[in-house]
Design brief:
Helix content: 10-25%
CATH architecture of the largest domain: 4-Layer Sandwich
Structural class: alpha+beta
Largest sheet: 20 strands, mixed
Radius of gyration: 24 Å
CATH topology of the largest domain: Anthranilate synthase
Number of strands: 26
Shape: globular
CATH superfamily of the largest domain: Anthranilate synthase
CATH class of the largest domain: Alpha Beta
């Protein structure tokens, strides 16, 4: 295939040689992970330009022989100044069901193999409208553990608000463009191209993503998330995400208002040693694992027994951190006005937590909120149900909003209205402020709008808005430094931007009300509270409990009798 590289093997002393092209490769097999680099590369901590996942096994290497190899291309390794040869969307004829859409796409793939494009790079999306409406979260759940995977559900569509029509001019191969509906949610598995690095998200990385996008193909999007603090060390549980992780799904299911759509995307770039043939083969491998039968999900508490619940920091250390923050805020020489301190709570249950089923339950709680899931091929699932928009762009029009002052919902309508009045009388905000009510909590809310001078300003907007005062503090840099010096865990993507980039539009939420779910390791649930002059440590702790309640209520906090688990601890 090209130049031979050397395999670096962890937990295995023996080294093997493998023929490969001149591209960085990361390979995963059960209980072993090893890197393959071209001869000229020595940095073991670099992000690869091509990612391989060995998934089925027989006899052979390490006692096993890979029967299926899935690979993906890292678009960050390309030159963002060089345009992609072709960006195209083709819409096929409408079919009645997801299974028929699968059949139609498999036929289309065979046809594409017979007539490869003459270009050295490009991205092509084939989409099949489906008459029946199927929930994207249920389709994703039917795919079991196919990785990588992503899910994003926009807020306005679920609440039937007047929002952007994100699905534009969807016509079939016969020219009929009448099949047009608003997009409710997107689920995807596999990546036609992914974007990941260890360094902080940069303008170069943004341009690398935009290179594969076009306003003429609005549903070719890169879904992903960025770390809260890219300057902080990455802890083991967040290592698979890097400093940021975005993916354009290979296979995507779109839930529409009254209908659905199934799509495949093929991306290739010879300059990245990722040819058309390699991309088609990778897509075929992913398609072999796709289930077309979708079963209705029960969106109710799972009933799993929780073995332990531990907090970092615990209540004692939380009180100390809050007192330290108050001392800094009250010091005349300090510029710190507000700092948002966070807590990580690890939940261990008797069985593995299914992140997609959990997210489906959060959807019931999450009207007027964004739901998301992002899971790299070798990592845990980052899931959340966030009410907070970071920014939304359509062409050069941009909007953002601010949420603050978390309070519980009142037990009666009169009490609820009193709490609403208390929220509205706290601060003065222009334009006019309102209250956003969620099932269990309510927030002070204000919306801001504006216009960009040019599309490239999108990166500056993202960099300027993140992190927001609601998740970091004021002034931003002073608060960030205090957090890095005080907090005893890695926030990772918690409180960072999560959403998608598109050709003509983009949308990002703030990754709060979120959790990291990992097989055999339970879940890490994150929450934060803003500390200002006059804050009380115990009251702020209660706010953390309130914010995490929408996650923990879906699991039973119960220590089973006759449990043989040792070192059981429930620490509040």
């Amino acid at each position: 295939m090209g130049l031979a590289g050397e395999i670096f093997i962890e937990k295995v002393e023996e080294k093997k040689n493998l023929e490969t092209n001149n591209a960085s490769v990361f390979i995963l097999i059960p209980s072993h992970s090893f890197h393959l680099f071209p001869p000229s590369v020595s940095q073991r901590n670099s992000i690869p330009s091509v990612f391989f996942l060995l998934a089925h096994y027989g006899k052979g290497m390490f006692g096993n022989e890979a029967r299926r190899v899935v690979a993906w291309m890292n678009g960050c390794e390309g030159d963002p100044k060089l345009p992609i040869g072709s960006i195209e969307t083709r819409t096929l004829t409408v079919v009645p069901s997801p299974s028929m859409a699968m059949e139609r796409l498999n036929v289309a793939i065979r046809e594409l193999k017979c007539s490869p494009p003459p270009l050295t790079s490009g991205i092509l999306r084939l989409q099949v409208p489906i008459e029946e409406q199927t929930e994207a979260i249920e389709w994703l759940h039917a795919q079991h553990d196919n990785l990588p995977r992503c899910f994003f559900s926009g807020r306005r569509s679920r609440a039937n608000r007047n929002g952007f029509n994100l699905l534009m001019d969807i016509g079939n191969e016969n020219g009929d463009s009448s099949f047009t509906n608003n997009l409710v949610g997107v689920a995807g598995v596999g990546s036609a191209v992914f974007f990941q690095q260890l360094h902080p998200f940069s303008y170069h990385d943004w341009r690398s993503i935009k290179r594969f996008l076009s306003s003429k193909c609005p549903l070719i999007r890169a879904y992903g998330a960025i770390r809260f603090d890219a300057t902080a060390n990455i802890s083991p549980e967040w290592k698979a995400f890097g400093s940021f992780y975005f993916m354009v799904p290979q296979v995507e299911f779109d839930e529409l208002e009254g209908s659905s759509m199934l799509a495949i995307t093929i991306a290739w770039d010879n300059a990245l040693s990722w040819t058309w043939d390699a991309a088609i083969h990778s897509l075929e491998t992913t398609m072999q694992q796709i289930a077309s039968v979708v079963v209705k999900l029960k969106k109710e508490a799972s009933g799993e027994s929780i073995l332990s619940k531990t907090h970092v920091p615990n209540k004692t250390h939380w009180d100390l951190a809050v007192k330290k923050a108050l001392q800094e805020i009250n010091t005349s020489s300090s510029e710190l006005v507000k700092v948002v301190l966070a807590r990580s709570s690890r939940i261990l249950s008797t069985t593995n937590i299914d992140p997609i089923a959990w997210l489906a339950c959060l959807q019931v709680e999450g009207e007027d909120a964004y739901q998301f899931c992002l899971q790299p091929p070798n990592g845990p699932a980052f899931v959340g149900n966030t009410p907070e928009l970071l920014f939304q762009r359509k062409w050069l029009s941009i909007s953002s909003e601010a949420l603050a002052a978390t309070r519980a919902r009142g037990e009666s309508r009169a009490l609820d209205l009193q709490i609403e009045h208390d929220l509205l009388s706290r601060v003065v905000v222009e334009p006019k402020k309102t209250v956003r009510k969620l099932p269990r909590i309510q927030h002070l809310y204000a919306q801001l709008t504006g216009n960009l001078r040019r599309e490239d300003d999108e990166f500056e907007i993202l960099s300027s808005l993140h992190p927001t005062p609601a998740v970091c503090g004021l002034p931003k840099e002073a608060a960030r430094l205090f957090i890095s010096e005080t907090e005893m865990f890695d926030r990772g993507m918690y409180a960072g931007p999560v959403g998608w980039f598109g050709g003509g539009e983009s949308e990002f939420a703030v990754g709060i009300r979120s959790a990291l779910v990992e097989k055999d390791s339970g879940a890490l649930i994150y929450a934060g509270a803003g500390i200002v002059e006059g804050s009380n440590p115990s009251s702020e702790w209660d706010e953390l409990e309130l914010k995490t309640s929408q996650c923990t209520k879906l699991l039973q906090l119960e220590v089973p009798r006759h449990s043989k688990v040792e070192n059981l601890e429930i620490i509040y």
